[in-house]
Amino acid sequence: MPSRGKTGDCFDNAVVESFFSTLKRKLLLDHVFHTRQEGRSQVFEYLEVFDNRQRRHSTLGDKTPVEFEQLNIHAVA
Q1: What is the mean pLDDT of residues 64-68?
Q2: Exposed, middle or buried by CB within 10 Å (0-12, 13-18, 19+), for 51?
Q3: Residue 23 contacts by C-beta under 8 Å, 6 or more apart in sequence?
Q4: CA-to-CA dists, residue 23 to 9, 19, 42, 47, 64, angstroms
Q5: How much is the pTM?
Q6: pLDDT in tens, 8-42
Q7: 2, part of any domain
């Protein structure tokens, strides 16, 4: 689904749109899920195993979300 807003609108959220684009490209377009539970399990595994712990995010300074959180927890404490 295309973006709802124009650049600068409150509907413009490039980070989230980029995330869903990557999720679709890497997981959803290449798989046929036979049950809803199978699809949910695969998306959960993608998020928890790959996206949060291995994939580096440019918006987080090329750190994984887990690394970014750990750095910020120690910075705040």
Answers
A1: 89
A2: buried
A3: 43, 46, 51
A4: 24, 6, 11, 9, 16
A5: 0.62
A6: 666 667 778 888 888 899 888 888 999 999 999 99
A7: no
